[in-house]
Amino acid sequence: MAFEKRGRAGTRYLYLSRRDPETGKVKKLYIGRGERADAAANALTQRRNLREGDCRAVQAHMELVRSADNVTATFDAAVVVIMEASLLAEGCHRANYGPWRKSRYGHGRHTAATR
Amino acid sequence: MATEGIPPPPDEELAKIRDVVGRAKRGDATTLPVLREMLDRYPAIWQRYGDLASHVELSWVTLAAGDDLHLRESLVRFAAQQRAELTRTNAGAIERLLVERAIACWLQLHFFSGIEANAVVNDASPKVQQYRARRHGQAQRMYERALAALLTVQRLIPVDRVHPATAIEKQSDSTSETPSATNARCEPSAIHQVGGTENEESGDRFESIPQYRGVEPLQTIL
After folding, report:
1. Touching check for A57 and chain B: CB below 8 Å?
2. Residue B85, by phi and psi: left (phi above 0), alpha (psi -120 to 50) or beta?
3. Which pLDDT tens digit goes with each residue over B121-143?
């Protein structure tokens, strides 16, 4: 914690550093000293530990599924490309990212235009 | 990938194949001509080992089941049943790929459902629960997209238009197809032992699943 020692007795004063959103500069916020500062510091440490634990849990989970995610994404992308190519070859079309439909003339714009 | 009808390499060839595959996995470029010749001679090797859909399915089954062999076997059998139910008779290669994708997405969804439920039971922090719920939502949407794509193809590409070379004969009755019958399509043979030579640890984990015998995670191939 950001305790600062001052004076000959070495009294510890707790400050928090916060960036001012308006000016963008870091400002020190005085919390207190003595028991009050210790309690605040403990609470802040616990909160930080919890936050770090959450981050570690999420990171561990991401690491666990990373390999499966990568393989799935590769397979998924390949299948989508192949599916779209087959549907186009079948004379289907997809207007403005809507559902796939059979072309009115059966074989796409080129055939329709040449009719 | 169907490998039935393709003769597996004889036992005396297996040792040589293992040696070549092992050196190729370590990046020995001098093995490439021999490796290519072997793959040409025994296509069952690359048909089984290069099946991306199997690797995807294996990844999610492994994650979802962990050390629970009962769950693993059940997932494999349920996936086989779904495969049989979703695939039409004489389905083409595209439809089979889409079915594999739907099954992979279902396994992924199953995994994230379990993870999310465990997070609630284990009283995980809100941030972790939020992350898991987000992943569950992604998996759900992916599964819905996969099913929608499959239905689109089944609606727009009739089976009689499927090229005969890519068509497969479905089992006579999907409901009567037993999981053991489905797995029999992937009956372990000598060919499966080739892939498992370099990674014995991971190989042991899946030896109980006939469908996955000899299949290693994709990252070991690439």
Report:
1. yes
2. alpha
3. 777 788 888 888 899 999 999 99
DSSP characters over B148-201: HHHHHHHHHS-GGGS-GGG--PPPS-TTT--HHHHHHTT---TTHHHHTSS-HH
DSSP codes joined into one string, B102-128: HHHHHHHHHHHHHHHHHHHHTT--HHH
- What is the model's pLDDT at position A115? 45
Q: Which is higher by pLDDT, A106 or A92?
A: A92
Percent of chain B with pLDDT over 90: 26
Average pLDDT rounded to a whole number, residues A72-90: 91
* Residues 6 or more apart whose Cβ sits within 8 Å of residue B177: B80, B81, B84, B171
A5-21 average pLDDT score:
89
Tell which A residues from 23 to 52 touch B, by Cβ distance under 8 Å.
50-51
Residue A60 C-alpha, separation from nearest chain B C-alpha, in angstroms: 11
Instruction: Of B211, B191, B103, give the one whose Cα is nearest residue B147.
Output: B103
The DSSP output letter for B7 is: P
Check: complex ipTM more than 0.90: no
Q: How far apart are the first and last CA of chain B?
A: 19
pTM over 0.80: no
Nearest-10 Cα torsion for A21, A23, A26, A31: -70
Name the closest residue on chain A to residue B66, using Cα atoms: A64
- For residue A55, the one-letter residue type is C
3-class DSSP assignment, residue A14: strand
Q: Do B128 and A58 touch (CB under 8 A)?
A: yes
> Which parts of chain B sit beneath pLDDT 50?
1-3, 165, 169-222
